[in-house]
């Protein structure tokens, strides 16, 4: 059985003000670093065999907190980046709605390709699924922690599971430094075992669905 833990990065200043990051290379803030430090021991207790991260700083720095506990190196894969949000990157939702009202409406309605140079959900899902499958293939029967991004994790999960976008839209988003667990089971393929698992730095009680 191969296990993938899709771990969203910690909080950033852009997360805090709902500014679209996409593939902009932002850093963790103090809260994000605290979240990563709180989550890392829980993931370390699951005895990962490998750690792979998006090459964006916020994901890599999140992964480094786990590497410090496990002694594992962190591999980098640019396919694990967040969705490229084109002209939306760097803007808040109200700013996008004001500047690009038609494209904003399509984006919020779940349109796969809303325009404004935003990467399609299908393209993102395919590259994410390729990266996830590659990590699994290199570590058959092992546990791999994938430090990535919220939207990318959900879409990659969906492609591995064969879920249509209509179903994925019903899955709640990953909170910062929470993770999704997927297992590759013999004769059954990829299975979702847990979603949005993590810990609030203010408590030691794990939570998730």
List keywords for this structure.
7 strands; 209 residues; 39% helix; alpha/beta; Rossmann fold; 7-stranded mixed β-sheet; 2 domains
Helical segment count? 8
CATH architecture of the largest domain: 3-Layer(aba) Sandwich
Contiguous uncertain segments of 5+ residues: 203-209
Oligomer status: single chain
InterPro entries: His_Pase_superF_clade-1, His_PPase_superfam, PGM_Phosphatase
Keywords: Hydrolase
GO molecular function: hydrolase activity
EC number: 3.1.3.-
Word description of this protein:
The protein is α/β, with parallel strands linked by helices and 209 residues long. It folds into two domains: 2-82 and 121-207, Rossmann fold (3-Layer(aba) Sandwich), CATH 3.40.50.1240; 85-118, no CATH class. The protein contains eight helices and seven strands; from the N terminus they run E-H-H-E-H-E-H-H-H-E-H-H-E-E-E. The protein has helices at 13-16, 30-44, 57-70, 93-99, 101-108, 121-138, 150-161, 165-168, and strands at 2-8, 50-53, 74-76, 143-148, 179-185, 189-199, 206-207. Strands 3-2-4-1-5-6-7 form a seven-stranded mixed β-sheet. The longest helix has 18 residues, at 121-138. The protein starts with a strand and ends with a strand. Residues 203-209 have low confidence and may be disordered.
